[in-house]
Design brief:
By secondary structure, this protein is of the alpha+beta class. The protein is built from 13 helices and 17 strands.
């Protein structure tokens, strides 16, 4: 447990509240005595916090426990539907919206094509309004909405500073927040997917990793000691724009030879279409063709895997994280990508380990950014410490 030695009384109060609500959420049902014993807090401190949590609707009395001598203790239960949160993932191709409760149960989810940012935000507002109406949820019980965005964000001022694949620069979400009537959080999609991965994915509770989000481009989220590392300029993790080729393919960022030009979704489509007589716009089709023994799909994926590993190698040599997690839209192709990576002769064993770092795949398939976006607003309830460094 975090030492409270150097905190102010107000900070200690916040820490106690968060620890208590997290304990009740984890245990489902408990008593004041069990909380006091586990968290090493006094009964008056527990009682004060429990009264507040009951008044706010997070906790309720659900029964009476057997007495161990003296008064029978009251059994306390966590109210998972006390609050709700929306998550939205925006990419060049589509928009995903998810509504969850405090237990991360999915209440509703939808998807629709992306057009332009202004039109898309209007559609998001309409979908949120309809979801709340359909599930009879009062807007006052919604903590807020988290947005996962493919670009550089200023989360403090709600500005999407640069999103080349959306062709957006310096876009403010303040007006959207005001029109929606809900608090809005924004975050880079790879960062928030990495956050989701350590919260609820295959990498839960892992301290150090780099998450690779493969979509139209490539983004990376860096986790150091369970915190998202963004740097003082909020731009750390732009490995997608490191050079892996001397080729002259021009990237949306204005450079040439960028990793995302050779290892993104668009890169795989290009590699396959260059050798195929039938053009495809679906990576599903390429992976399906691979499964059916198509030699062109196998060749394209092997070349793709080599480019993918070139960037992974740069990450490992530069940061040497415990794990490199492959996710984004490619997270659901774990089985085939593992086969292809092993066939590249870069690894000595079946485990994808390089220089001590293991390459694994997300447990959230292609929903990492959406999952993280929905979890982000709930941090004001369940966390007393910023997850960003």
């Amino acid at each position: 447990m975090l030492s409270t030695k150097n905190f102010t009384q107000e900070q200690i109060k916040d820490i106690n509240r968060v620890n208590i609500i997290n304990f009740i959420r984890q245990e489902k049902t408990t008593t004041k005595q069990e909380i006091a014993l586990t968290l090493d807090l006094s009964i008056p401190t527990i009682t004060s916090n429990i009264n507040d949590l009951i008044n706010e609707g997070y906790v309720k009395e659900v029964g009476i426990a057997k007495s161990t001598g003296g008064r029978k203790p009251v059994i306390l239960g966590f109210v998972k539907n006390a609050k709700y949160s929306f998550g939205v993932s925006i990419t060049k191709d589509h928009v995903q919206i998810r509504l969850i409760n405090l237990e991360n149960d999915i209440i509703d989810e939808t998807e629709f094509p992306y057009t332009d940012l202004v039109t898309t935000l209007s559609s998001i507002k309409d979908h949120i309004t309809n979801m709340l109406k359909e599930h009879a949820i009062n807007r006052k019980y919604v903590v807020g909405i988290g947005l996962a965005l493919p670009g550089v964000v200023n989360d403090e001022h709600l500005i999407l500073e640069k999103a080349p694949n959306l062709q957006v620069h310096d876009f403010s979400f303040i007006r959207f927040q005001e029109s929606l009537g809900l608090r809005v959080w924004i975050e880079n999609e790879a960062n928030i997917a990495a956050f989701a991965e350590i919260k609820v994915g295959n990498s839960k509770n892992i301290d150090n990793l780099v998450y690779i989000s493969i979509t139209e481009g490539i983004g990376t989220g860096i986790i150091i000691k369970s915190h998202i590392y963004k740097s003082n300029q909020k731009k750390a993790g732009e490995f997608g724009h490191t050079r892996v080729s001397g080729g002259q393919l021009r990237c949306n960022c204005g450079r040439s030879g960028c990793w995302e030009l050779y290892a993104s979704k668009q890169a795989l489509l290009r590699l396959y279409n260059e050798v195929s007589d039938i053009e495809t716009t679906s990576i599903d089709q390429i992976f399906d063709s691979y499964d059916h023994g198509d030699s062109l799909a196998k060749a394209a994926l092997l070349e793709y895997a080599n480019y993918l590993f070139d960037g992974v190698e740069n990450i490992i040599l530069g940061l040497n994280p415990d794990y490199v997690v492959i996710g984004g839209e490619f997270g659901k192709y774990e089985r085939i990508l593992k086969q292809v990576l092993r066939a590249s002769d870069r690894f000595k064993t079946d485990r994808l380990v390089y220089e001590g770092s293991e390459i694994i795949f997300t447990g959230l398939e292609d929903k990492g950014a959406l999952t993280g976006a929905a979890l982000l607003p709930l941090e004001v309830i369940f966390n007393y410490n910023s997850n960003v460094i």
